[in-house]
Amino acid sequence: MSDATESPQTPNNRQIMAMVEWVEMKSSNIAAAGYIAGQLVPGFSWFERKLFVRFVSGDVYVYHNVPREIWNAWLAAPSKGSYHYANIRKSFSYEKVT
Asked: Whose CA is closest to 25, among 88, 97, 92?
């Protein structure tokens, strides 16, 4: 007997990336970035804090469990590339999305 109630699924990174509001970055290496944190999306369960980074090459990476404070500090940083390398890339787990 099957359960008639469907449990929400966890969205994959490509689905989450489609929901991200991208911010253009003034950087020679980073084209844009977007942050999304623990939002309830219809049909999906809660998901973690994710930071998406689109590089000038077109590659997109997602960084997991990034606090909003890091996102806000990055937006305010004078050098996006230096801040990314020192405070994001070396501090959070990540994977390539595209």
From this structure: 88
